[in-house]
Structures are given as C-alpha cells and as structure tokens.
Amino acid sequence: MRVVIAGGHGQIALHLEKLLAQRHDEPVGIVRNQDHEPDLTAVGAETVLLDLEKSDVDSVAKVLEGADAAVFAAGAGPGSGEARKDTVDRAAAVLFADAAGRAGVRRFVQVGSMGADNPDAPGLDPVFAKYLQAKQAAEEDLKSRDLEWTILRPGALTNESGTGRVKIAEKTGRASVPREDVAAVLLALLDTPATAGRTLELISGDDSIEDALSAL
C-alpha cells in the first residue's frame, strides 16, 4: 500500500511511516524543509519536498498519483500564530483533499482535534480557538467530499511509549494518548475501510486497537 502523508516530519507521521515501512508498505512523507528529509529516510519513508502553504492542487495531485491512501497529519504546531492556523490546519487540509480527489485517491484519513466540534467555547485562548476553528472548517470541508474519509480526533498527545490499549468512539471524554498509539490507530484505520464516513475520538483505554475498531 502506497500512502502519502502530509506533514511527514511530524512526530505522529514519523511513527506511522515507520510502521508502514516495517510491513513493507510504501510511506511517502511530504516535507517543506529539506533538512527534515534524512529523518524520514531513516524510518524507511520516501520524501517529497513540497510546501503545502505555497503549492497548488496540480502539484500536490502529482505527488498523490498512484497512491492507495492519503493521510493529512500536518499542523502549524505550537508557537505559530493565528494566521498559520488557517493556512496550515485549514487551507492545507483543503488543498490536500482537493488533490486527492483529482488524483483519484479515495481513501483519506485526517488527523483532527478533540474540541473541533465546539471551537467557540468560552474561555479559550484566542490562538487555540483559531486552531479549533481551522480544524472544524477542514473537517466540514472533508465531510462534503466524495471521498472515503475518516477523521481521527486524538486526545492530549504525549511522548510516552505506546501501549496498544485505547478507547475509540464518537465521544470518548477528554484524556491523553501517546503519539505512538495515534500512529498505530491511523495504520489500523487505513486497513479498515468500514470506518469511512466516521469521525472518531481516541484516548488511551483498555481495549486493543483491533477490538476497539471492531466494536464500532
């Protein structure tokens, strides 16, 4: 399976690329900084140097041609301002989905954010509120498309080692989850086309990933 991943140098993406490569799939990570390419090569991923904030749908579609699935795992990241929340977390996601449609890549998994269904909750930091608004807009755009999409909203991300024990549901409640487990769930979602059309939350829990997805 050839899987193109936007935000290929992110921590979740690197874990996913490693998992894909270990089972002899073909992970392709899109990065905008050439200094990041060796990190992807080290985990067995092919790299494509492309800035989604400055690219166009034709250029991105060329990268996606021949892929079996697309994963949007990009984000402006901590420390970025309101403007980049929009240009990355919303606009780049929309562009990537546009390109997937043009390239004929139907399976599309998007990393969202818990709280994206209520971005205007009182008391939020303005930049974080803008982030949630961007995530919500990206999700609503994706839901309108004729793609086999799944949206995964993980809880608070940690760098602890993955346990493989999770809770996955439309509503899980707020809790944390290791990035390694998020990547493992993304891999399982790629293998589970029956999750298309679902928006799922993810936190650490008691079930194996296989059991958690089967229960859906």
UniProtKB/TrEMBL annotation:
InterPro entries: NAD(P)-bd_dom (IPR016040), NAD(P)-bd_dom_sf (IPR036291). Residues 7-193 form the NAD(P)-binding domain. Pfam families: NAD_binding_10 (PF13460). SUPFAM superfamilies: NAD(P)-binding Rossmann-fold domains (SSF51735). It comes from the Bacteria. Transmembrane segments: none annotated. PANTHER family: FLAVIN REDUCTASE-RELATED, UPF0659 PROTEIN YMR090W. This is NAD(P)H-binding protein.
